[in-house]
Specification:
six-stranded mixed β-sheet, single chain, Immunoglobulin-like, repeat, cell membrane, about 550 residues, mainly beta, ICAM_VCAM, disulfide bond, 3 helices, membrane, five-stranded mixed β-sheet
């Protein structure tokens, strides 16, 4: 009995906690939407595990949207929302076969998407009548539209569209003409458009646009301002601003006169900016201002002179940096700067000026020789500094100053070694070879090295040796005569000969002396006897 009572209590508690079947529409009852936007209506249910949904209008008109059913809710999406969606929409929810619930929502529409557009036509020229048009784009419902035209705070014209029966969005136009006074130039014409629909909550309900009442004129009083000035330093940021008076704003074109008197087009802007000016930016700048409405043009000019240290514009050699000996050569140097530079053109090795000062230097070298080869420099200098540039002149020529050196000498003994070295100057460097004259008078090439070494000289090595230096511009030859002496006998063979010769000489000399003495005596006495002579001597 206790258990039964407990089960009944649990069932009753469960029944009390189950939610009742309910539904709602979001947003509720009424919604205001702007035509062209997206509108989503949501029908939501609670207390039913598997509800089914149905959408319709009260007048059974087309829905004009897309239905998407989910487990416990359904959506009706109108994208974009339009006039056809201005209805009461009903959502019906079924829970099983017996339970259903239904609610409705009213969709109210309007269109007021943008500010008015003011046009003043024809284009106003001082003293002529003007017509003001105020256009309100895509408005709905137009029968609620109210428009005011004002000049400053003074109301010029007021208009409404209460009798308008438009059933769709339309652009409404308000037109008003009047004769402006001179003091009206520059004042604002304002168009105020209102859409005061009662009981509809949307913003804004009022839109405003303004335009100044201006006369077309100009351009006039056109000037150019230069910052930091018309004589900037090299590297400065130069800014040229063209200022003019014109209505409507003019078209502006910058031009620059070039050295050949042609004109270079730069930019179409009232400001011409050069971040880092150089001497080449110097020149006459022109600002040309054109008013396409009044068909008037005006120009202003400014002369820009960039100051700074010189820069070498050109350093060149004609006809080429590599020439042949005997050609005529000119070296040219030019530099640019303000103030004009002093220019020195010289050969670096000489450190001497090679010409008078001028803006463009030409150094003439007639019939160059190898002595003119070397580095040349151009130095340009003014009070702001100096700059240098170098160029090399390469003079090509045939072999010169060919010389032969012989070590130890050109007269040597048999068995010795002799070294003969040949040197020669030329550009390009000459190729050196050695030849030897044969007994027949012909020359035989014996070496292609500048140094000729003859070892263990023999008598057949004596003769004329010829060194030949050659390149594509010529050749030069030098000759040396090599003499070879015979070799002496060995020392151990010569000593006996020397002793024998000495002994004979020691005996022969006294004998010859005695013989001479006796001969003289015989001549005195009339006869001669060697025996007697010897006796007497004894």
């Amino acid at each position: 009995m206790g258990r039964t009572r407990q089960a009944v209590l649990i069932i009753l508690y469960a029944l009390m906690t189950v939610k009742a079947f309910e539904m709602e529409i979001i947003p509720a009852n009424r919604v205001v939407a702007q035509i062209g936007e997206t509108l989503v209506l949501t029908c939501n249910s609670t207390g039913c595990a598997s509800p089914s949904f149905s959408w319709r209008t009260q007048m059974d008109s087309p829905l004009g949207g897309t239905v998407n059913n989910h487990r416990t809710y359904s959506t009706l999406t109108m994208n974009p929302v339009s006039i056809v969606n201005s209805h009461h929409y009903l959502c019906t929810v079924f829970c099983g076969e017996k339970e259903k619930k239904e609610k409705s929502i009213k969709v109210e529409l309007y269109s007021f998407p943008s500010d008015p557009v003011i046009e003043i036509s024809p284009s106003l020229v001082a003293g002529e009548p003007v017509t003001v048009l105020c256009k309100i784009p895509d408005v709905y419902p137009s029968d609620r539209l109210e428009v005011l035209l004002k000049k400053e705070e003074h109301v010029l014209h007021e208009e409404n569209f209460y009798a308008d029966g438009s059933t769709n969005t339309e652009t409404k136009t308000v037109k008003y003409s009047f004769n402006p006074m001179a003091e009206d130039i520059g004042k604002e014409i304002t168009c105020v458009a209102k859409l005061p629909i009662a009981n509809m909550d949307f913003e804004p309900k009022e839109r405003v646009a303004s335009q100044k009442l201006n006369a077309n004129f100009g351009p006039q009083n056109t000037i150019i301002t230069a910052s930091p000035g018309s004589s900037p330093m090299e590297g400065d940021h130069l800014k040229l601003t063209c200022v003019t008076e014109s209505n409507p704003p003019p078209q502006i074109v910058w031009r620059k006169h070039l050295a050949d008197e042609s004109i270079q087009h730069l930019v179409e802007n009232n400001v011409l900016s050069i971040p880092h000016v150089h001497s080449t930016d110097s020149g006459l700048y022109i600002c040309e201002v054109i008013n396409l409405v009044t068909n008037k043009t005006e120009k202003a000019t400014v002369d820009i002179v960039v100051q700074g240290a010189p820069s070498i514009a050109e350093l060149s050699i004609e006809p080429s940096t590599t020439v042949q000996e005997g050609q005529n050569v000119s070296i040219q140097c030019s530099a640019e700067s303000n103030p004009p530079p002093k220019i020195i053109l010289r050969r670096k090795s000489d450190r001497a000026d090679m010409g008078s000062y001028s803006d463009r230097r030409i150094l003439l070298l007639p019939s160059v020789t190898f002595l003119n080869s070397g580095d040349y420099e151009c130095v340009a200098e003014n009070k702001f500094g100096k700059s240098k540039s170098e160029i090399t002149l390469n003079v090509e020529y045939g072999p010169k100053n060919t010389m032969i050196s012989v070590i130890p000498a050109n007269t040597v003994k048999e068995g010795e070694t002799v070294t003969m070295k040949c040197t020669s100057s030329g550009n390009p460097a000459p190729v050196i070879s050695w030849k030897k004259k044969k007994a027949t008078g012909e020359s035989e090439k014996i070496s292609e090295d500048a140094t000729l070494i003859v070892q263990n000289i023999k008598s057949q090595d004596l003769g004329l040796y010829e060194c030949e230096a050659y390149n594509q511009f010529g050749k030069e030859e030098k000759v040396v005569k090599l003499l070879v002496q015979g070799r002496l006998e060995k020392t151990d063979q010569m000593i006996p000969l020397i002793i024998a010769f000495s002994s004979v000489t020691a005996v022969a000399v006294p004998v010859v002396a005695i013989w001479i003495y006796v001969s003289r005596k015989a001549k005195i006495n009339g006869s001669y006897s060697l025996v007697k002579a010897l006796r007497l001597k004894v």
